[in-house]
Design brief:
single chain, about 1250 residues, mainly beta, four-stranded antiparallel sheet, 3 helices, extended
Length: about 1250
């Protein structure tokens, strides 16, 4: 079958389609030829004549010409020979190009244009709305268009189009000169051809420059142009010396830096990020501050007294507080240039050891503990794990203590509330805690009418809580229901139900207790007889159901909204059965009339007139929600905003069996990590970075940036067991004896990241011989034709690996990843049948990876390159150089083929990323490495690569500049902070520390001089200075108790000298403490002396001091003698300048003597006589008494009465006869 004349296509006779049988044959594939549609280049085109191209037959052509007055070459349009589409247009063999050579200027000339005999030009004369005229290059052209038609048959006419002239515009200031640095106010709206001056804005300084607006500019954004090569250079000047704050100094080169006693980076600026300044300012230097002790230090263990006020760059020693000990003191240091007053000094605490002789035997041993030869244990009736502690306890006490034992306590009585009180029966368990002892058990059962199996309750044997909880599992108690089924209910094997035959409706609920009330018999509830419908249970704060209360069957009611909610009401209908399930209803849709703002805005939100939105550094979609609480009060909630945190970078899709990204899990912006090879792959790891700026508020999550490491599978496990016919010889495989062929192997990856070596190519020799024998002896007897199965066979039904068909119709070809020429081979079988087999396509192999022989190459991109693909060979950091391309040959089938590449030229020009800058060196982006401030020399930083590909950086050339050593001074009086770290040849100011006042003195750091035998030793720099005369000025505010007389401070009236200071003293510092303001000390208010003691401890007090209870300074009081003492009254005096309330009165010495009356009867031998002018008691010689009279008063302490006692006089005695005459003559009578 073929297509008939007037038809085109490929005929096809079909009896089935897609495995579906047809009832009769079907012819298809031929289509009727039709004319093309009329040519229509464009609906609005007037320059083409299309009259000859209407309804071209298939294969016909027509000519398309330009419509007059347009001119151009004629083109040919053709209707395709096989056209079957009636809407298809003819095809042009080339584009139709038409043009107008000229047109008449019969129209009004537009504003801005002028035409003369010489042609068109722009009108430079000013006009209304155009004060500076027009400028440009005029261009006038004509075209033919519908919009110009008046009465033309074609609907087109000529039109004039002048272009190129625009109104002149004033110039604007340069946008690049906006900001605080430049003053462009004079250059705003400069007319064409005008001039202005661009100046520096205060405080910046610099000469202004002349700028001009081009005379022919028509650009409204045209900036004024600076004439010639002039530039506006504005610099930030130095502040006046009087405005330089403390802590800043300027080098001889004019560079600002932090002065002695200050640290930081000195910055001079004339503008702030958000503010223009009126004067230059300095910032960045802060005073050096001493370090403080860490917040969590144990003061009971460590002695930090040496580290109080340790200054930056200094160190101190930390000892252990007794009885703690350590082998040697620990060192702590304050960070160099510390300016943080809260910075803790650097210290790695080493635990102090506690040596305590009685640590293991706390005495006396507490109750509950016993000491055995194995240590402490809990006594009987106690439980726990005893442990001896040596402190330190609160208050740094180190008395040893033993803890850990607790008395075993009885468990509490079982107690239940609510439903459980009615459900559980604990009558078999003790009701008092002291009865339910540890280890005991009791039974907990279900209380009637509940039913269920009982459980055992146990008091734990080691319970240490008085009345503690018992151990048990609650019994499963159920309510069985009433024994007699009530009316309206049905009970069967499936449970309880409402009796619908009686029109009872509802859901059965079995109740054995209610609201904590225990019932004796169970009840069944929930089934209701026909009657009024029960309103639905809805939120009473939102919905109004009162209209449906008591509605009868067959009636309807309305459900509405409660204020402040609003919405449309719904209609509910009560069915014929009534009850709780009889009402048919729909819930009203109720909304709040107004959702107010919350009274307190939570963190993360900001509210204005437009509503809530997320605050700075918060993200999300804010939402305001209103709801009500139990009391129907409206509660406002803001949600949707969450704080912004850096999002970790995402991982690219990599082979999970080859690459290890675990080190990069959670890497956030700015962090580095390593991408490694997973075993059994081997290779060097590469560094990955999470790009900075990856923040969730940008809604952009970056991928981790890295170069894939070259991970090679060096070892593929041998198959276990090794298949027959194969043996390993060295690194390869061969066929064993009895097998023929060539052994081949490849490593196959399994789904679980395992690998296995697959062997093939070896066939048993016996099988080969047998196949040949069978083929050679095959019978050909009989009237059979010769087998020609190998000459022809069916097509391959399904594809093999490496082969594919285009749309299933065309010849077989090699699939992607394979190369060669695909062919079909008919393999003859013994049954004279053939099996179609495809051959000729082999897989495209990867080239051998590049192995870097040095440290300068990064060949990670070339680890797996297929034939026809390329990779990039780069220079490895810190080497730099242009990368090169490596290529694997097209259609490579040789797995041993090497890449074709050129080695890049890599040079070591910089140090690697992350190189730590040593002290004394700084790197400038332009000048390179320099010596840091405080160092001198020529900086040299060089980096080399070792044989192990490790970077080695060597720095040198910068040495610390020796500074002057400062003398020890009174830090409360003299401020030498500007002289810290003073360099040789520099000077500084030594000032008085407030509140001291005095003129500052200049100190100099005199450079050392060459000395030594060979004049090669520089002596230390010398600090030369004179201390300023610092005077402690008078207090700014008068101080009570002090007055100044004749230039000297003294105590004011009513005040006296402090005994310690002896009078008024003006001072500006205290011992070990500096003061912010001057203070006066030494004067105290005058106070009365201490009252005279009423009692001296004697049984009978001699003095009466009742008048001496409050004696003021300089005053006195009278002291009288108390019976039985006698004496004249005397006075006690208070010191005139007394300031001590405990100072005693100045008392007279023994003003009172013990007195007594003469007895009525004077003892014999005593006489009161006046001898030698004084009255006294003597021995009565006339009464023949001799001796020395001792007459005194004797005090009776019990009655405080006295008696006069006489002693010392004795009667004269006659001598006995035994005396000789000489002796007798010596005795006087």
């Amino acid at each position: 079958w073929i297509c008939d004349e007037g038809y085109t296509g490929t005929s096809e006779l079909r009896c089935s389609h897609e495995r579906v049988c047809q009832e009769m044959p079907l012819l298809l594939g031929c289509f009727k030829l039709v004319p093309c549609a009329p040519l229509n280049l464009t609906q609005m085109r007037c320059d083409a004549n299309l009259t000859h191209c209407d309804k071209l037959e298939p294969g016909q052509i027509c000519q398309v010409a330009c419509q007059e007055p347009y001119v151009g070459e004629v083109v040919v349009a053709r209707c395709p020979q096989d056209n079957i589409d009636p809407l298809r247009q003819p095809i042009l063999d080339q584009e139709l190009v038409c043009s107008l050579e000229e047109c008449e200027d019969k129209y009004v000339i537009p504003i801005g244009y002028v035409k003369s005999s010489a042609g068109w030009y722009c009108d430079e004369e000013p006009g209304d709305g155009f004060p500076w005229g027009w400028a440009g290059v005029p261009a006038v052209y004509c075209d033919l268009g519908l919009e110009y038609a008046v009465d033309g048959s074609s609907g087109c006419d000529l039109g004039i189009h002048p272009t190129g002239c625009l109104p002149k515009q004033p110039c604007v200031p340069p946008a690049s000169l906006e900001g605080c640095k430049f003053d462009t106010s004079e250059c705003a709206d400069i007319p064409p051809g005008g001039q202005c001056i661009l100046r520096c804005r205060t405080p910046f300084v610099g000469p202004g420059v002349l700028a001009e607006c081009p005379g022919d500019t028509t650009n409204a954004s045209q900036e004024v142009l600076v004439s010639g090569d002039s530039t506006l250079d504005c610099e930030c000047p130095d502040p006046p010396d009087a405005d330089v704050p403390p802590g800043y100094m300027r080098t001889v080169e004019g560079v600002w830096m932090c002065g002695p006693g200050y640290a930081g980076v000195a910055i001079k600026r004339c503008e702030r990020p958000d503010t223009c300044l009126s004067a230059p300012e300095l910032l960045g230097c802060d005073p050096l501050m001493p370090c403080v002790a860490p917040a969590d230090v144990d003061y009971c263990m460590y002695d930090l007294s040496d580290c109080e006020g340790v200054m930056p760059g200094h160190s101190c020693e930390i000892n252990c507080v007794s009885p703690y000990q350590i082998a040697e003191p620990q060192n702590a240091s304050c960070q160099v240039n510390n300016t943080d007053p809260r910075k803790a000094f650097d210290w790695e605490p080493i635990e102090c050891e506690l040596t305590w002789e009685d640590c293991t035997d706390p005495l006396p041993i507490k109750v509950g503990y016993q000491k055995t030869i194995d240590g402490f244990r809990c006594a009987e009736g106690w439980t726990g794990d005893p442990e001896v502690h040596c402190g330190a306890w609160e208050g740094c006490d180190t008395v040893p203590l033993v803890t850990g034992c607790f008395p075993i306590q009885p468990c509490g009585a079982l107690s239940f509330t609510g439903v459980e009180k009615c459900m559980y029966d604990a009558s078999a368990c003790p009701a008092q805690p002291e009865i339910f002892q540890p280890g005991q058990q009791c039974q907990l059962s279900c209380k009637a009418p509940y039913v269920g199996s009982p459980v055992m309750v146990t008091c734990p044997a080691n319970n240490i809580v008085w009345g503690g909880a018992s151990s048990f599992v609650e019994p499963e108690c159920e309510c069985p229901g009433p024994p007699i089924v009530p009316v309206g209910y049905i009970k069967n094997f499936s449970g309880w139900f409402c009796d619908d035959s009686l029109n009872y409706t509802g859901k059965v609920e079995l109740i054995c207790s209610q609201d904590g009330f225990c019932m004796e018999e169970p009840e069944a509830t929930g089934c209701e007889p026909p009657g009024p419908c029960i309103p639905p249970v809805l939120d009473p704060c939102m919905y109004d159901v009162s209209n449906c209360d008591g509605v009868e069957p067959g009636q309807q009611c309305n459900l509405g909204c409660q204020m402040p909610y609003f919405g449309s009401s719904t209609v509910a209908f009560c069915g014929e059965n009534g009850g709780s399930d009889g009402l048919t209803w729909e819930q009203p849709y109720c909304l709040l009339d107004y959702c107010p703002d919350p009274p307190v805005v939570p963190p993360g939100y900001v509210i204005n007139s437009t509503g809530p939105f997320c605050a700075e550094r918060w993200k999300g979609s804010p939402k305001k929600t209103c709801r009500h609480n139990r009391t129907c009060d409206i509660i406002v909630t803001l949600s949707g905003c969450s704080p912004v945190f850096p999002d970790p970078c995402t991982f690219p899709a990599l082979d999970p069996c080859r690459y290890d990204l675990s080190d990069c899990t959670g890497a956030v912006p700015g962090e580095y990590c390593e991408v490694r090879c997973l075993e059994p792959y081997v290779g060097h790891p590469t560094t990955a970075v999470c790009p900075p700026g990856n923040r969730s508020e940008d809604f952009i999550v970056e991928d981790l940036m890295f170069t894939r490491p070259y991970c090679d599978l060096e070892v593929c496990p041998d198959p276990d067991p090794v298949p027959d016919g194969y043996v390993r010889i060295g690194e390869g495989w061969e066929c064993t004896e009895g097998y023929v062929g060539r052994a081949v192997s490849y490593c196959r990856s399994l789904p679980d990241c395992e690998h296995v070596l697959v062997l093939g190519g070896c066939t048993p020799y016996a099988d080969v011989i047998k196949s040949r024998h069978d083929l050679g002896n095959a019978s050909v007897e009989g009237p059979f034709e010769a087998c020609r199965a190998s000459e022809t066979c069916d097509d391959v039904s399904s594809g093999q690996d490496g082969y594919q068909q285009f749309y299933g119709k065309f010849p077989w070809r090699c699939a992607p990843g394979y190369t060669g020429t695909a062919s079909k081979v008919c393999v003859e079988q013994r049954t004279c049948s053939s099996t179609p087999t495809l051959s000729g396509c082999v897989p495209i192999e990867r080239c051998v990876p590049i192995v870097s022989d040095d440290c300068d190459l990064d060949v990670s991109d070339c680890s797996s390159v297929l034939g026809g693909e390329t990779c990039v060979v780069r220079c490895k950091d810190p080497y730099t150089g242009a990368s090169t391309i490596a290529t694997c040959p097209e259609n490579n089938i040789n797995s041993s083929e090497v890449l074709t590449w050129t080695r890049p030229s890599c040079e070591l020009t910089n140090c690697p990323l992350g190189f730590s800058v040593p002290d004394g060196f700084v790197k400038d982006s332009i000048a390179g490495w320099l010596c840091a401030p405080g160092f001198q020399g020529k900086a040299s930083v060089n980096c080399t690569i070792t044989d192990a590909c490790e970077t080695k950086c060597v720095s040198g050339g910068c040495n610390p500049i020796e500074v002057c050593a400062l003398p020890a001074v009174d830090a409360c009086m003299l401020n030498m902070s500007h002289c810290q770290e003073l360099l040789p040849g520099r000077s500084c100011a030594v000032r008085c520390v407030p509140p001291y006042v005095g003129a500052a003195k200049v100190a100099n750091c005199v450079p050392g001089f060459l000395t030594g035998e060979f004049m090669n030793v520089t002596s230390p720099a010398t600090f030369e200075w004179t201390a300023p005369d610092c005077e402690c000025v008078d207090p700014y505010i008068p101080v009570e108790g002090y007055e100044k007389v004749d230039g000297q401070w003294q105590c004011a009236p009513g005040y006296g000298p402090d005994p310690i200071w002896g009078g008024a003293v003006l001072r500006c510092q205290r011992p070990m403490e500096c003061l912010d303001e001057p203070e006066l000390i030494g004067c105290l208010p005058l106070v009365p002396c201490a009252p005279a003691p009423v009692s001296t401890g004697r049984a009978c007090e001699p003095l009466n001091v009742t008048d001496c209870t409050e004696v003021h300074p300089g005053a006195s009081c009278e002291i009288r003698c108390r019976h039985p003492y006698v004496g004249a009254p005397s006075t006690a005096t208070c010191y005139a300048l007394n300031t001590d309330p405990n100072r005693p009165l100045e008392m007279p010495a023994e003003p009172c003597q013990l007195g007594c009356e003469d007895p009525e009867d004077i003892p014999e031998g005593y006489v009161w006589t006046n001898s030698s002018g004084n009255w006294s008691w003597e021995c009565d010689e006339e009464a023949r008494f001799v001796g020395i009279a001792d007459v005194f008063c004797k005090l009776n302490t019990s009655s405080c009465n006295t008696t006069k006692e006489f002693e010392g006089c004795r009667p004269r005695v006659r001598p006995s006869s035994g005396f000789d005459g000489h002796k007798l003559r010596d005795v006087s009578y």
